[in-house]
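Subject: for your reference before the review

Hello V.,

The reviewers asked for a structural picture of the protein, and I figured it would be easier to keep everything in one thread rather than splitting it across files. Below is the amino acid sequence we used in the manuscript, unchanged from the supplementary table.
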Amino acid sequence: MACEEVCAGELRHAVSYQEAIRTPNSSGGTGSPVWSEQAVLMCKIRELSGKEAFMHHRLESQAVAEFTARYRSDLKTEGRLVVDGESFNIRWLNDVDRRKRWIKIVAERGVVD
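And here is what came back from the structure prediction:
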């Protein structure tokens, strides 16, 4: 039997999906966000691009990756993915075939929102 878009065996990377939770600080405003794990996704990861640049007197690297996972309706572009200790900010979510079977997540590492 052939795989159409993704074979289940390709989903070999455990990836943490996290959302920021903001709590009030002592002065009544919102404090720094605390990232909280909402789910662990099994993903196929494909690196799309990467670059390095000298910024603020140091070498900075950026990378864009595509994560493919089983479809979930609770993922948000405000969230992030963490794999092997590296954080990726979610930029785009795509229901691959509009049948809610697979979701592609394009995310970027090395940038600050």
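For the response letter, the relevant points are probably these. DSSP finds no helices and six strands in the chain. Strands lie at 13-21, 34-55, 58-70, 80-83, 86-95, 102-109.

Happy to draft the paragraph if you're swamped.

O.
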